[in-house]
Amino acid sequence: FSTAGGSVAQVGYSQARDAMGWLRSPHVKKELEIADYQVEQIDQLQAKLQADVQEVYADIRKLPREEQAEQYRLAQEKVKKIYADGEAKLKEILLPAQIRRLEQVSAQMRMRGSVAYGLRGELAEKLGLSDQQQKLLQEKAAEKNRELYKKYAELRAQMQQELLEEVLTDKQQKQLDEMIGEPFEFNAGQP
């Protein structure tokens, strides 16, 4: 979703799809100061996009499994076109300041999940990020996520221990320790 340079077809339709999704939120509508007449137009546009996308995929489900993969690939191109058309129609509904704020909100939401994910596509293009920078972002984000999960696990264990100490008697705590036994480290990724 862009007002200057680049289109949905060039950077993928996910940002346009995300923007349309965020417009379902009452909080986003309030933030953008969407007028009642705009809400009605947006709702109609979203309903049409949803119906058009469902229609694209409806016939594929009826095909034999071996034919579905190729048809899904072709359908994705049709869906990109649907969202590109939807983006153009949305720009007719929203005011320029609303479009700009929607882009900002969408970018913030993408960044909340992961900086490496958020700085792909249109944002990476606008920032002029090189492939090397994007790869480095992904690597460093993965490293930071591992650190975060480790800290989270430590905090969760500490919180659980504090909770048990606050509620259980010494006798109950000792019984629980016996029932649980020595710590067992389970790693789902290894046999």
Description:
It is built from ten helices and no strands. The chain has helices at residues 8-11, 14-22, 26-31, 36-58, 65-93, 96-113, 115-118, 121-127, 131-167, 170-180. Helix 2 (14-22) crosses helix 6 (96-113) and helix 4 (36-58) packs antiparallel against helix 5 (65-93). The model is unreliable at 1-12 (pLDDT under 50).
Please give a quick description of this structure.
The chain has 191 residues and is mainly α. Helices cover 77% and strands 0% of the residues.
Structural class: mainly alpha
What assembly state would you assign to the polypeptide chains in this entry?
Answer: single chain
Radius of gyration: 24 Å
Which residue ranges are poorly predicted, with pLDDT under 50 across at least 5 consecutive positions? 1-12
Strands, count = 0
Mean pLDDT: 85
Order of helices and strands: HHHHHHHHHH
Q: Give the distance, in angstroms, between the N- and C-terminal Cα atoms.
A: 44 Å
Main sheet record: none
Give the strand content. Answer: under 5%
Helix content: over 70%
Shape: elongated
Q: Enumerate how many helices there are, as a single number.
A: 10
